[in-house]
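Researcher: Please generate the 3D structure of the following complex. Treat every line as part of one assembly.
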Amino acid sequence: MKMKRLLPPVLVVLGVALLTAIASSTAVHQDLPTTNTTDVISTLVDVDTELQRRWEELTLTPAPPADELQVLRRLSLALHGTIPSLEEIRRFEADERPDRLSRWTASMLEDPRFADYFAERLARSFVGVEEGQFIVFRRDRFTHWLSNQLKPTEPEERRPYDAIVRDMIAGRGVWTGKGQVNFITASLANDNFDENKLTARTVRAFLGQRIDCAQCHDHPFDTWTQDQFEGLAAHYGQVDLTLAGIQDHSGHLFNLPLDFASEFETASVSDDLRRAFRSHEQRLRKHVSIEVVTDDALWLVKDSGQSEDTLGPRFIVRRTPDTLVVSNSDGEYLVEDRETLEQRIIDPAVPFHPEWLGTEGNRRDRLAVWVTHPDNRRFERAIANRVWALLFGRPYLTDRPVDDIPSPELTEYADDTHLLDILGRDFREHDCDLRRLVQAITASRAFRMDSLVASNDPYEVEMNEAAWAVFPLLRRRPEQVIGAILQANSIKTIDQNSHLFVRFRRFISEREFIDEYGDLGENELESRTGTISQALLQMNGKFAKDMTAEEAFSAPGRIASFSSTPEKLLENCFLACLTRRPTDEEKAHFLPQLQGEDRQQKGVVQDIYWALFNSPEF
Amino acid sequence: MTPRLPRDFTRRDALKLATGLGVSFLLPGLELRAAERRGDERPRSLITLWMAGGPSQLETWDPHPESKHGGPTRAISTTIPDLQIAHHLPQMAEQMHNLSVIRSLVSKEGDHERGTYFVQTGYRPETTVVHPSLGSILAQQRPDDSVEIPMHVSLATGDGFVVPRGGYLGDEYDAFRIYDPGRNIRNMRQSVSAERQDRRLANLEVVSRSFRKGREQQVDNTLHQHVIERALTMMTSEQLKAFELDEEPQAIVERYGDSRFGRGCLVARRLVQQGVRSIQVVLRGFDTHANNFEGHEIQCAQLDPAFATLMQDLEEHGLLQSTIVLCIGEFGRTPRINALDGRDHWPQGFSCVVGGGGLRSGMVIGGTDPDRAAREQDRPLKSRTAPDDPIQIPDLYATILSQMNVSPDEEIITPIGRPIALCEGTPIEQLMG
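Model: Done. Output below.
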């Protein structure tokens, strides 16, 4: 009886105590990721077999597997641009089911942070990092659009990558409403569309090759010629900026008999010519002049503009063997030869497999189909190499820029590029799914191995790195540095569920830090070393001071207050910053510092955090 | 080999350490320090006064009061007999004999970002390669072991693209940025007591060592340790004082003008004394699409005293013969005055001022006709008439490089495997001393 009466209050007290304990503990959530891992096993076997083949061929011993926590750290840096929070580490360690890494990868891919982060990384290759001409280019709209394409969690709602690319190449409309259109408007420079820039970017970003040199001359090392470049560029030659946004002009209007050729050789316009135009529903305005571009072959009819002084071209007329072709001048791609200064009309053309071109829509629609055509191997190799580079920090072909992959026709490179073909084929066969590609790469032996090399010989180390027999040690990108610093300062994961204030602080700090640290820009996948100003910023800057401070709500402060022993405290600092536990030698060095009452006063924890932030491992 | 950082790590230790490791660049050279050299034996430096936003040539170095597009700006005489400049620059009028004016710079870039890139590097933007700025080229080509502070500095700077980049030469040649010159030497001082700094470095040594185990070569390839050591050397260097103004008499600070730009010009002179190769001082606010005339009055009120005092000060310190001073922005402004009483971007026929460092002074190169230019303003760039004696930016930079004993046509193999010349111009004959 007594017991019965006492039970409710006791239960309440126990309940409260339990809740408090949970709340004040390291906030371990029990919802471990259950997402099914996509079935990438067969591809994975092929990838690992290919890696093994290379190691055997070069008689290299691959590095041992890395600790799973280290792989978790790599995944977090590569997919979210940050490190795992102490909270996530606890959950990961509590997950005892087999193959937790693959399940965690899948769950990280479903996190909206992945879509946002990858959209920003990919956007760099699509539109660069410059803010450009604000009025017609909105980079933020572009990345927002791209992120939304990657975001839906239901696989059937996700846009396949090839469709995303077609949207960019052929997008029309207003850049604010349709983010993809900014791919086109990014190339607006000094009020003109730069078809060359668009073409070079298309080939680099989507086909993984550099034809920029061919803009001015035939490519010295590869097969690209200037003619091929111009033919590709002509696909963008009809793009125009109108009140309705980006539109394409149609080119061809009508043909005239060859007899009219002489009419274009005189400065004034005859009534016959006016009548001929009118009969094709085109009216020549009152003020009109004809400019001979190439004698007896190419003419510009100028009748747009306010006065006689400012007449601009509206029609372009060219002679073919049996007719005179009259086109809308905005709908033709006219280039000036750099040597002869002669102007020529360039018709759209592709350097290989014209049968891949689309059959419907305008020039850009047809090009979009060609670029993404299922038989165009360059397309899948390009994205495989880029995703590889984003995950490891350097492209699969380590000695070349990420977008400079040898042509598939060049058999001498077949061995080097075989792995890209394996990944590419799987990508194609599975609806151009970027997440699947990420999973295949991150589950490979290369991604999960340690960064230890048995040798100290620079040449051997380089060999091992080039053959992916060791995980490469590379400088973190600026957004990863600040992402990691901010996360290490918080026990809880900073994500879309974080308090608005936390997210706002992250946003502001990230921008400030990257501005000062230096943005690597479009070429962020080139390997570089750090600079002195970066070292100074990390050692002495405002962030270093704020983020290491032992305050009530910061990780250093909370770790110091909830860790029951110096050993626990040290372990938590290491886990929060380096995602690993301290070694014996480190314990021997640090633990004596953590003894004593005036620990906080002396800034001991802050100084440990400082060292961890500045270590080569961070 | 990673050097261990002992607990009481001092600058002297750093030097000893550096000797042992053969990293001689950490040491002051055996030659005379740059600060002690004078006249011809002194290696040359460059100070660029960067007029961000695009200053109006008509309100600065190329006034045309006779033109209907000249606006209310008057022209005043200068110490060069045939040269008149805008009345906003009375102190500069007294200094022009030590400088030359180019009034016919041409560029094809009329956008701030692209224009800045072009005028800072001499190359138009490309997507596969980032060209180094003039200052970075100088820092890389003319190193000086006795200088422990950065050889390439940007003062009073602000965001992103105005800061000169090292481009394909490497990020280490990016300009070192100081936002508020003389006031805050950002990040260059340790933020804790010597005792705690020692503890921090000892901590760092321990965690670095355990990570290096089994990865020596890979960690060394990141140059992490090397960069930290150089940063520590800088933090303890006497030369850091060049960034401070405590030792300068108040009168001189006031003569430069107590603005970020004014203090920047004074710090620039102090950095030149230490042997810093290239310094940029930024003056923002020239993008006068509205109220151009008022805007330029405000801008020139900062530019005039700072620039004029800098010229005098360099001369008084015996540094003018070894210091090239260049005042330039990304482009000029339209001859036509728009409805908001402003002027818009104009890359064809804009001005710069350059002198010192042994360059010929008193020259006036090129000329513009604002009336004709205004008539042609709506035409595409190609069909506008060029100014008289047009000068290309690369030619200006070839001049400066040659004068600083760097061969402009030296080619560098860029990371993309393509050789690119440091500069594609040819020196301007009229300016070569």
